[in-house]
Amino acid sequence: MRRVRAVAALLLAGTAVSYGAAVAPAAAVASPAGGCWAYVPGGAALDSPPASDISVGLGAWTTVPDGGFGLETAGATAVGGTRVAQVEIASGPVLSAQDDLSGTATFLLSVDGVPLAAPADAAFTVAAGEPVEGLEASVPIPIAAAGPHQVRLEAVYFDAPASSLRVACNGQTQGQPSPGTNPATTPTATDVTADFTAAPAASATITAVADQAVLDAGRPADVASIRIAGLASSATATLSLCGSGGSCAAVGSVTTAADGSATTSFTVPGGAPVGAGTLRVEDEATTVSTGFTVLGVQRVAAAEALEADATIVTLTGTGWDPQRKVTIRGYAGTSSSVAATADPEVVADVDATGAFSAQYAVSDEATRSVIVDQARSSSHIGAVYLISGVIGGAATPDETDDPGEGIDGETGEPGGSETPVAETPESPGGAVTTPLDPDAGVEDPGDIPVPGDIPVDDPAGGAGAESESDDLAVTEARLVGESSFSELFGGAPQRDLVFLVENIGAETVENPIVRVSVGRSDDVEPELVGADVGALDPGEQAVVTVPLELPMAAFGSYVVVGQVGDTEPGAFRVEWTTYPWGLFAVNALALLLLGLGVRHRLDLRRRARAVALDLPDGAAVVDLTAADAWWAYRAGVGPRPVPRASLAPTSAPTADEQVPGEAGRRPRRGRDVVAEAFR
């Protein structure tokens, strides 16, 4: 019987019902190609043939100009991930012109022509004669292969089992009664598709590092460019530099495109972990890393060995820009601003780890230092080694007598075996040491005459000379940190004082003293703080951090003064300004409330004064006669006064009215009414 009613309704509706006449296909997003067919299913399976037709012609996908049919994918873009297909219908077909329906809409999808194992379902409820609206469904798509892929909407089935009604909508353009060709008997895929491209794997590739010849290393302030692929579509990915110990420093973020790719750049921060590590890129579902080394301060270790006419300085460097050459020259001073000496320069190659080893021959007496220089794209980096000052002078075999000759009888000059000169061990001053053989025998020299007075010149820099102060320089002093919530309301402000210490002297400095103080003016004297600088070789730098804290409720400008070592370049000064704005706001609010309270009290006084001013001149607010009678009674000299009934203010007579029972009396004035109220 329900089937008969449905057929009758469709016949009466004619073209007003979606199944009454064919509708020309519109744009894919407005309405898919093909149409819909209503029927009584012959079984529960979606591909069951119709038991009987309800439609008499091909119905339209939608009854509005734009049905809002959409299919898109989102999620992973690399093989092994899972992507999600999302299908929606803003306004679909009219399922029945007579019955209210409830059921399930089943969306059949395929990937590259292969149907998905599971369909996407969405429940619907629709009134008679109204189109199905606001349908959304999603289904996961495992990514099994790299390359381009296409997701297609094959068909949509609207199933209302309680009403024995099923509507098949697909790309079929013919609407012949069953068993003829129609969307129910011969389904055809729609033209609604969504494309995506899968990457073989998620990847992060560094494409360039400014001022570097390699792609896997950089030092602070270098800018690196990176290409990302295989991440989630239109997702936010974060970039971090991580050290081998697990600590990471965030360097930026980027939003990927629909295909999961992105290109961006980041600047290597000063706080990044130094040494071999990784650049980590991650979104909510995927993490990918690539090797990246953060270069620290370039260093040079040196050792000297004496030859007959020269001193050979063996230099070993670490922390230099990889795959770039370094140039080694001798200079008459401690910096490259002076002229180079006659010693020939040496060019050495730096390996992929930033290390090199080279020998430099010093024969020019004017050479005081050996400077290693490396040219970058926009700057230079270098290191200075101060030689010991001993150039050449190593003994040769022809300068000594043959072993075993003893004492030359004619000249009295001593003979004996040659004592070899050892290579100079690595030391800050580069001094030459000559080891003695403790096992060598010592022959009794006999009577040695006492030498006469021989003048001895005290060498410069000897034991009696005054030692030089540590030559340190402080640069880039700054305060790091943000205002906390408690600081806004008078809490103790806290910051980190960060500065760069460089050894500009000629000798290694071991853990120099650091003094820091905070005051209102520059006159404050720096005090000793527990900051560990460590050992600094000549030309070496170190970053020092000192935590600072001001007292509670501090406001205004303060001066941070400091000193590293005892020389003038080691002094520095930083300004610190802080204001507890939240505390100011609370005090302002308290003053406002206090002012409102005072104003309210003054208003009350004005009202009381207005009542008193309403009385005639000389009149009392209190009935003095009644008061005298009361006090006479209390003193025992008068009768007990009889109280008179007081009148409520709401019923009190006016000044010219008379109280009942008081006829013949004079009219009462306002002062009499007030007086009675006090009796």
UniProtKB/TrEMBL annotation:
Domain of life the protein comes from: Bacteria
Region Disordered: start-end pairs: 169-189, 394-471, 643-679
Organism from which the protein derives: Nocardioides soli
Biased segments, Basic and acidic residues type: 670-679
Protein name stated in the entry: Uncharacterized protein
Key words of the record: Membrane, Signal, Transmembrane, Transmembrane helix
Comp. bias (Low complexity): 447-460
Transmembrane segments: 579-598
Coiled coil: none
Sequence ranges of Polar residues compositional bias: 170-179
Compositional bias ranges of the Acidic residues kind: 398-411
Signal peptide: 1-21
